[in-house]
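Hi U.,

Before I forget, here's the chain from the pilot set. I'm dumping it here mostly so it's searchable later in email.
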Amino acid sequence: MEHAPEESPKLGPFANQDAELHFVQLLTELDSDAHSYVFEVTLAGEPYALKTEEDASVLWGSERDRAPMDYPDQYLDPFYNECRAYGRLVEKKLNGKVAVRCYGYLMLSAQYEEDLEQQFGIEDWNRTNEEKKLPFSKRYPLKAIVKEFVPEDTVWKPRLVGKVLRDLKKIRKTDVYVIDVKAANYKNGLLVDFSVAMTNLYFLFDIKPTWRVERYKNEDLIAFDVMIREQRVKTRIQAFKKRNIEIMKKLRSYEKSLLQDEEDE
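Structure:
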């Protein structure tokens, strides 16, 4: 299964695609704005977290229009974002060390939609109207990521802040930019969500001005600082330094001046 352009990292399938699957509980609130459903499940009797992605894009408008037409989903779909990010962590031998461990992807028969509606009341899988008219056997399968099940919420304490930031920086050194850093995306101090992560090579890095690319790449650091403030943790640790803001301002001003020079010619 293709997750990305040829040069991008790829995640392998779950080792036992035919393992008996049992859904234990829905971990996602149905009235949330999440673009996925996360379940506690058992596969061959072993506990896991299973993240099923809606067939949805996390980018819209002109950015979607400018994505390479050969593989827009591989750039914009949360499932592929997760696959690329975890594929890179596996390459760098960081899987399970800086984020919750991932065991690969799993393709589920669309028949599960009917089962999950009956069991948990899930009705929306973001299917097109054309697909909704088809029997479940004719619909595209559901895409899912298998992860370690971590039931414990994160207790935010000063000593944990440094460790979480170090993990985030290790992830960033692999050219994976998490973007969506928030307390809800951590379990027991480990990151569990890469739905909107940008993993180099990423098409926006080629079509956007440098200052905007730098903004994308620093979004997770800014979000980290916001998260720690919201959790009211007393710490002097700060991810995004004032000098970074000044650098981005200078880049933006410089590139605006170049555009102005081109218009004046």
